[in-house]
Write a structure and sequence with these properties.
The chain has 28 helices and 30 strands. Helix 7 links the parallel strand 7 and strand 8. It is globular. The protein binds S-adenosylmethionine (SAM). S-adenosylmethionine binds next to helix 7.
Length: 817
């Protein structure tokens, strides 16, 4: 077996809670090494939640019983909407009918079913044992399909409730979106998909909006990069900050949307603070809603974790509120059922920053069953679940004076007085309990920033500022004044200018000062668009035109990422790329950047949209702690020895990368895209370097007539034997002297092969099968597979590349978990 079925279980994540965890998702913080059912008890848990009266006595048993049952397997068809629809069609019309009527050991097994509330039926669930997945040929095959499509990012294995928050944000392609606590990134992927709603099956759109995915854990930001590589986006930035003190981001006036009536004095300023239309606060929490997936929590759960996280959760939400545009929306979510992490945070945030309201969205997702937020609760002041103090004052009075200052409890742990709770509309929050729809436990609140009416027809024109710097938010001129949060000393952020401390009540709105000294616009204004002079070397030219997203001063010396350097469109290498790749004049060449200390286009070119470029150019990337931005589109192809011998290579250095092709495709001259059919695709699948002479006509003549280099091929829909290509497929190839290579990752190739040909016909699969045949162990003595072996195991599972029993089990644990 790949891992032990028994053993100790870690009970707490980072940051004192689910900090590293997430509902579902590929997240190992609370690895669910199996806990015996008999051990699924925790007196403190029961006592605490009984005291909260969140459920009736009748429901309590059902709730507790469901908490002890394993979760169904759930997944979401991911990627751009059109592509997702196609794959969903395959699941619905091909896989599910095959799985209907399966009988295993005398019992019928239900096929996957669509999650009723997920839009367009793109999310699924099924509840079958590992034994069925292993032994039933039909389910084994379906499982292989899931493993492959998960590997290449077309399917996201995600807990059902974890899919909810992005659906309540209703992101549109022009929105400026912030995901405050984003790693590992399953919700980030959903937000990106919404930003890319205009994508087609083959081509990506370039949204005018923006998604910043942030996480305070540097290592985990790399999970975000991995996750988002599945939907390459020029509109993405990944940052590494403590969300509760997220810095103000500057944007120039041309990226600012001025509401009508903006004072000329304000509009004339050069820089403003970027405000967001949508912010997700999926905050670190104690995670007791994930107990079904992470049964180790049973052993360690205690309510002081929730008490301890409350302050951080509140500060993150308050920071989000200060970065929101008027009319903008925040979704606050946790996978905890504890009111101290939920309604208490919402109530304290609403009280500390006026001008916000909870949005009532009970029927937003028809079919979703949830309960209203609660208006009163009983925090415990110690581990023994002492919940008898009705107010903070009662509690603090009970302490000897000498201990009061050390208390970890805050007034905001307690519920507001009943009339205030009604005023705050806390019942508009949404609570999801496991027994309602066989899910994990979850909490969601949707907040909106509203204009604050003052006298007839007028609104307050007060803006929050970034501490002493008076950074204002011109996008939201008509917002409320922001009061200093009523937090106790350890939560008070006003001393930190980046934490958004509140301005004096009468501070007028101000744009950021034009003269930012060390943070002014970087070097692109140095005649960057003048073409290279005849005397100038490429390198000189680059020095002159460099537009690094880095400014001196204010920089964070501990931030070690490479700088971001925008390359001038006139750069000789860019010009060569444009010519060789046949990119049309509309190609946004000025949005290409490189990431290396020298700022030279030596390996990969990334593409951003205009807004991301603007942010990179107007902010010190070390202050932003920018881990990545945009998406890789063009990469250097080392010329083969053969090409170099022939004197070639210099002109052929760059090619469109497979991952960047959807972004670049709309700009490639259609005449330059080669046409082919499913037969040519089969040849390219079956060999690493098939000879040009091995293709049928007309593709053979087309490709034989081409010089060495990078090309893009559009495969038309069609059928051969049992294989079927139902839609256009566009892929990059590399033509050498006499052969051709499909330039996609071997896992993507295998997934594609399974989808189109019904089996893995790739060379990698054949090689793997051969290798396995030579080393097949005797049953019972099988090797433990590593993560990267999963594909191999899947081939075995699907019976397509030899079969050994143990690796199949390993693959199951990768996906079914
Ligand atoms: C519940 S998880 C987020 C899950 C994520 N939204 C998803 O759907 O994949 C909470 C995340 O918050 C991060 N985190 C903890 N404290 C933070 C802070 N102060 N600022 C930003 N992120 C923080 C943790 O590293 C963790 O990745």
């Amino acid at each position: 077996m790949a891992r032990s079925k028994k053993g100790a279980h870690r009970g707490k994540g980072k940051n004192g809670g689910r900090g590293g965890g997430s509902t579902g998702d590929r997240d190992d913080t609370y690895r669910s090494d199996v806990v015996e059912r008999a051990d699924m008890h925790n007196e403190r848990f029961e006592k605490y939640y009984r005291a909260q009266s969140i459920l009736t006595d009748d429901e309590w048993q059902e709730f507790m019983e469901t908490m002890r049952n394993p979760l169904p397997t759930t997944f979401r068809v991911a990627g751009s909407r059109q592509a997702a629809r196609l794959l969903n069609g395959t699941i619905k019309d091909t896989h599910v009918p095959h799985l209907a009527g399966v009988v295993f050991e005398g019992e019928s097994v239900s096929p996957p079913s669509q999650i009723s509330w997920y839009p367009e039926g793109l999310a699924w669930q099924f509840n079958v044992s590992k034994k069925v997945l292993r032994k039933s040929p039909e389910f084994k095959k379906f499982h292989s399909f899931l493993v492959f499509e998960t590997e290449v990012g077309n399917i996201s294995r995600q807990e059902a409730v974890s899919m909810l928050p992005p659906l309540f944000l209703e992101v549109e392609p022009h929105h400026r979106v912030m995901d405050m606590c984003a790693a590992p990134g399953s919700k980030t992927a959903q937000l990106l998909e919404a930003l890319h709603a205009q994508d087609t099956v083959t081509a990506s759109s370039i949204p005018t909006g923006l998604l910043i995915a942030n996480d305070s854990d540097h290592k985990r930001t790399h999970l975000l990069i991995h996750q988002s590589a599945r939907l390459p986006s020029p509109a993405l930035m990944v940052t590494n900050h403590d969300a509760s003190i997220y810095p103000a981001i500057k944007i120039p006036s041309e990226q600012t949307v001025f509401p009508s009536g903006t004072k000329p004095r304000v509009a004339a300023k050069k820089q403003y603070q970027l405000l967001f239309d949508r912010i997700l606060c999926d905050v670190p929490c104690s995670g007791d809603g994930t107990m079904r997936k992470n049964p180790g929590i049973w052993k360690h759960w205690q309510p002081l974790d929730g008490n301890g996280l409350h302050s951080l959760q509140l500060r993150i939400l308050q920071r989000a509120m200060r970065m929101l545009k008027m009319g903008g929306r925040i979704v606050y979510s946790t996978c905890s059922m504890n009111p101290v992490e939920n309604e208490a945070v919402i109530a304290a945030a609403l009280k500390s920053i006026p001008g916000f309201e909870l949005v009532d969205m009970p029927n937003h997702l028809p079919g979703l069953i949830h309960r209203p937020g609660i208006t009163t609760w009983k925090p415990t002041v110690d581990r023994s679940i002492f919940t008898d103090f009705a107010t903070y004052e009662d509690y603090i009075q009970s302490l000897p004076e000498s201990r009061r200052a050390d208390s970890k409890m805050h007034p905001s742990h307690w519920p507001p007085p009943p009339s205030e709770a009604v005023e705050l509309n806390l019942t508009r929050c949404m609570r999801i309990y496991p027994h309602l729809q066989d899910t994990g436990g979850f909490f969601i609140a949707v907040l909106q920033k509203k204009p604050v009416p003052t006298t007839a027809g007028q609104t307050l024109r007060k803006e929050p500022s970034e501490g002493k710097r008076q950074a204002s938010e011109v996008d939201a001129l008509e917002t409320s004044e922001v009061k200093k949060p009523r937090l106790s000393s350890d939560m008070d952020t006003s001393a930190d200018p980046q934490a958004g401390g509140a301005p004096p009540a009468d501070e007028p709105e101000e744009a950021l000062p034009d003269d930012l000294g060390d943070e002014g616009a970087p070097g692109m204004d140095v005649d960057a668009n003048a073409p290279p002079t005849p005397a100038e070397t490429s390198s000189d030219f680059r020095q002159r035109t460099k537009g690094k997203g880095k400014a001196p001063g204010n920089a964070d010396p501990n931030f070690k990422e490479n700088p971001y350097t925008f390359i001038s469109p006139e750069d000789p290498i860019i010009q060569t790329c444009i010519a060789n790749l046949r990119l049309q004049p509309s190609f946004p060449a000025s949005n290409l950047l490189v990431r290396n200390p020298a700022g030279e286009p030596v390996r990969s070119l990334y593409m951003t949209n205009a807004l991301v470029k603007s942010i990179v150019q107007h902010n010190d990337y070390t202050r932003l702690r920018l881990v990545t931005c945009g998406t890789k589109v063009i990469g250097k192809q080392e010329a083969s020895a053969e090409v170099r011998r022939e004197g070639g290579g210099a002109d052929m250095q760059f090619r469109v990368l497979g991952e960047g092709l959807p972004v670049v495709l709309p700009y490639i001259d259609p005449e330059a895209v080669l046409g082919a059919d499913i037969t040519a695709l089969k040849v390219l699948m079956e060999g690493y370097y098939p000879l040009c002479s091995g293709f049928g006509e007309p593709f053979r003549s087309t490709i034989e007539g081409k010089a060495t280099g990078s090309y893009v091929v559009r495969f038309q829909p069609g059928h051969i034997n049992n294989a079927s290509l139902s839609h256009d497929l566009v892929l990059p190839i590399w033509k050498s002297n006499v052969s051709v290579t499909l330039m996609i990752d071997k896992r993507a190739k295998s997934a594609l092969s399974l989808r189109v040909f019904g089996e893995d016909i790739t060379t990698a699969a054949r090689d793997a099968a051969q290798k396995k045949a030579q080393t097949t162990p005797t049953p019972g003595d099988a090797p433990v597979l590593q993560k990267g072996d999963a594909l191999l195991a899947v081939q075995a599972a699907a019976g397509e590349a030899g079969s050994t029993p143990a690796p199949v089990q390993a693959a199951e644990e990768e996906v079914v978990g």
